[in-house]
Design brief:
The chain contains four helices and five strands. The chain is of the alpha/beta class and 115 residues long. The protein has one domain. It has a three-stranded parallel sheet. A two-stranded antiparallel ribbon has the order 1-2.
């Protein structure tokens, strides 16, 4: 088989195929299958700044209980508390995947604030 390895952003990849951010990457069995199929790296779903703020400030329950402030509008905002394993488990999830596969696991952080 020909050598199709490459370097991307300083990472040595066995293949130029990168599994982009997908809910499939939340399940370790799916990540293992992706690696077995030859992906060069796996990008995890984003950890959003809003998740960090809600977690840090404990605002999740407060917002959910304040229907008087946004009557009928909360249904338009998804519950981010457990998106991609949630804030508390994101690093644990990365560590577990790194133990499972030998391809780079790329975390995705999505935010706009400084600091």
């Amino acid at each position: 088989m020909p050598d199709i390895s490459t370097t991307y952003l300083g990472l040595k990849l066995q293949s130029p195929v990168i599994a982009s951010s997908t809910p499939l990457a939340v399940d370790p069995d799916n990540v293992r299958r992706m690696a077995e199929m030859g992906v060069g790296a796996v990008v995890l779903p984003s950890l959003f700044e809003e998740q960090l703020m809600i977690d840090r400030l404990g605002m999740g329950a407060w917002v959910k209980n304040r229907t008087d402030l946004l009557p009928g509008k909360l249904k338009h905002f998804p519950d981010m508390s457990n998106h991609n394993e949630g804030v508390a488990n994101y690093l644990t999830h990365i560590f577990g995947l790194k133990q499972l596969v030998d391809v780079p696991i790329i975390a995705s952080l999505n935010g706009a604030s400084l600091g």
